Amino acid sequence: MKILYLGGDTGNSSHRHAAMRRLGHDVQVIDPWLFAPTIPGMALWCHHTGTAVVADIIARRTARRLADQRFDLAWVESGEFVSPALVRTLRAQAHRVVNYNHDDPFGPRDGLRFRQYRAAVKEYDLVTVVRECNVAEARAVGARNVIHIYRSADEVAHAPRRLAEGDFRRWGSDVAFIGTWMPERGAFMRDLVERGVPLSIFGNRWQRAPEWSVIRKAWRGPAADAEEDYARAVQCAKICLGLVSKENRDLHTTRSLEIPALGSLFLAERTSEHAALYREDVEAVFWSDAAECAENCHALLADEPRIRTIAAAGHARALANGHYNEKAITQILAIAMEAGTVTNARL
Q1: Is the pLDDT score of 343 beyond 60?
Q2: CATH architecture for segment(s) 2-152+324-342
């Protein structure tokens, strides 16, 4: 198909449009944020206000850029800056318009950030969400067709690498957490450090943590933003932690798919969706609080053959589950192009 991809060209967004190309689609990528005014502080202001003014500017400039082009399908990634007017423009130029949002656009954490998204939901032919609670919430604001899907790892970005000794010197760790500081995470990491867990933290903003004086010795540097660095940081860890955000109402995250896909042991918070993805103590190991997490870390590190066994089983289960971009995108596109109404579908 000829697809217009309205979204960013970095991170998981770039993985999705690369997967579309691997599937043989003709994809034109436009990042709508490039049409926003270039004013210092604009991104932060929009994040907190969901401003209609900037959304209207983006809508007009995007429409001019597209001119009289035609597409089989328009894919809107996230959609926080995409107004109802812009979705209507896309619908005039594409046979179907799909939204994919892996955030929690109806939850309390982000305030007004997704105001434009919520206003535009009713204009899409298909809305894709990654939380079951979002299905009813999307319908409540007018969404016609909604599907609930697990997040995805990527067949290329999250394929295991061939590692060299230098990779282990740079990225090697016993227990790794790769992610940004959030208020709920500081106390948890402090507890692990105080319980003697040999922890390595890779990520941004950790200096803001009230617990920084304790956890600073575990911090190994900023986020592994480069795709290869991230993959190697995961692979070179004996154990990788998986935390979910309570404010974001997570029951799984992208790390839940990426860590096992890359072949490392996934030691994660015990949730219903983690339990559905992996067999506990066979394909992953779970915990309910810092004490149980620390206990599991010490037990696993004392039995490295068990680490390798569970990591291998988790990797095999990730492959069997098939929560990868190419499969997910194929399913979403097929549903989007069908006539009729989708009723609370789960992929």
Answers
A1: no
A2: 3-Layer(aba) Sandwich (3.40)
